């Protein structure tokens, strides 16, 4: 079984003694005994001053892009870092002045657009030069160490992309923290509590850890596995399955023909995935209350699957088959300068190649150099 950074720290938490500590965390920060990090910090006699919560809230109660209001009462005050405007994504000055150390522990998903690690980086940048130290209690990347997809291009930064990492970055939160220190030239005392027993070949089921859904639409490992590609559907007028019991494993719209679409995708023989015709009715989000024709995605080989390629293939087939298919603008309230799809993809290139009728092979070739450069840079500088 993998031992997380939290369990490693709690075996001897003395380095946090006599320090005023804040947490960036959520209910995913469980020990091997299924106890919450904040309870364990208090039980160890640490001076826990406050807790900062990410998007979705401390217990994952809020849907995506919904500002977090009142949080449940805990033994220490909880402050949300996902409020009604961009300024709320960073801690206020009055919430930092009485701190010596901030500790981050949240289960990440392994995709550039998943916002928990982006919250971590925002806070690291905010406290750079302040004398407040930063500690990451590391957890597994559920998708292992594989790298896939293009890098984020300058100018396309947003809360769903803050650094030039590949979409499926293959890094842990602690490794991304090291990357952030170098990329932003941060003046920060960073400590990473590494795991024991984890290797980059492991996917989450191989860790021996229990899955705790990090957000309302991430109910299981297979959803996380598909997310680096199927999250691209968020940038289109197609349902990504929010409002159903199978988000990111169902996609559709009222104008989609399930049989024709599944046949087109299955003919591509993408590795590790099968598309099955399906109908569903979302209860909220896009097309709420309407019957949507679409697809159910079934993973047949988790280690062979290329989730980002799969997502791009779905987008291309939909764009080729349906005139109704379009890319959305203004979905992300904190950066509406570009289509939402471009913010997720990291540039306009993939969308432009799809609209120009380029082949899937040509589109996939466009990010191969990015993958190679990122693997080389991350392996030599930030991985442990």
Main-sheet strand order equals 3-2-1-4-5-8
How can the largest sheet be summarized? 6 strands, parallel
Low-confidence stretches: none
- Range of helix content: 25-40%
Order of helices and strands: HEHEEEHEEEHEHEHEEHHHHH
Instruction: Please state the overall shape, judged from the principal axes of the Cα atoms.
Output: globular
As an assembly, this protein is single chain
Strand content: 5-15%
In total, how many beta strands? 11
Short description:
By secondary structure, the protein is an alpha/beta fold. 27% of the residues lie in helices and 15% in strands. Helix 5 (221-230) packs across helix 7 (307-321).
Furnish the topology, listing elements before pairings.
Layout: H1 5-10, E1 20-25, H2 37-43, E2 47-53, E3 78-80, E4 101-105, H3 115-127, E5 133-137, E6 148-151, E7 166-168, H4 173-183, E8 190-193, H5 221-230, E9 250-253, H6 258-266, E10 273-280, E11 292-299, H7 307-321, H8 340-345, H9 349-355, H10 360-365, H11 368-381
Parallel strand pairs: 1-2, 1-4, 2-3, 4-5, 5-8
Antiparallel strand pairs: 6-7, 9-11, 10-11
Helix pairs in contact: 3-4, 5-7
Key features?
single chain, 384 residues, alpha/beta, 6-stranded parallel beta sheet, 11 helices, 27% helix, globular
Any overview of this molecule?
With 384 residues, the chain is α/β, with parallel strands linked by helices. The model has no long low-confidence stretch (mean pLDDT 94). The chain is globular and about 65 Å long. Helix 2 links the parallel strand 1 and strand 2. It has a 6-stranded parallel sheet, sandwiched between helices. The chain has 11 helices and 11 strands.
């Amino acid at each position: 079984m993998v031992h997380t950074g939290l369990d490693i720290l709690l075996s001897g938490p003395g380095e946090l003694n006599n320090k005023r500590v804040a947490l960036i965390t959520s209910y995913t920060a469980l020990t091997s005994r299924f106890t919450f990090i904040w309870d364990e910090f208090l039980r160890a006699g640490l001076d826990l001053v406050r807790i900062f919560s990410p998007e979705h809230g401390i217990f994952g109660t809020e849907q995506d892009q919904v500002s977090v209001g009142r949080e449940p009462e805990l033994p220490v005050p909880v402050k949300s870092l996902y409020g009604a405007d961009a300024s709320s994504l960073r801690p206020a000055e009055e919430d930092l002045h009485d701190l010596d150390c901030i500790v981050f522990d949240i289960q990440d998903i392994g995709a550039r657009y998943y916002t928990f690690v982006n919250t971590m980086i925002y806070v690291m940048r905010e406290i750079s030069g302040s004398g407040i130290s930063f500690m990451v209690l590391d957890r597994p990347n559920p998708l292992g160490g594989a790298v896939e997809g293009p890098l984020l291009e300058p100018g396309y930064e947003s809360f769903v992309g803050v650094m030039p990492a590949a979409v499926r970055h293959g890094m842990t939160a602690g490794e991304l923290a090291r990357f952030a220190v170098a990329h932003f030239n941060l003046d920060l005392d960073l400590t990473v509590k590494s795991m024991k027993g984890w290797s980059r070949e492991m996917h989450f089921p191989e860790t021996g850890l229990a899955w705790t859904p990090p957000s309302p639409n991430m109910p299981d490992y297979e959803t996380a596995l598909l997310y680096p590609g199927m999250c691209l559907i968020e940038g289109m007028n197609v349902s990504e399955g929010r409002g159903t019991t199978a988000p990111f494993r169902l996609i559709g719209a009222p104008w989609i023909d399930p049989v024709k679409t599944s046949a087109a995708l299955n003919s591509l023989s993408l590795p590790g995935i099968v598309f099955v015709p399906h109908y569903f009715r979302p209860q909220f989000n896009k097309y709420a209350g309407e019957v949507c024709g679409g697809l159910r995605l079934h993973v047949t080989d988790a280690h062979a699957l290329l989730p980002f390629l799969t997502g791009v293939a779905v987008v291309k087939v939909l764009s080729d088959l349906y005139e109704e298919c379009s890319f959305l603008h203004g979905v992300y309230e904190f950066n509406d300068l570009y289509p939402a799809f471009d913010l997720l993809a990291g540039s306009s290139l993939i969308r432009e190649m799809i609209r120009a009728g380029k082949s899937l092979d040509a589109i996939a070739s466009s990010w191969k150099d990015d993958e190679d450069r990122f693997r080389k840079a991350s392996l030599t500088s930030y991985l442990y």
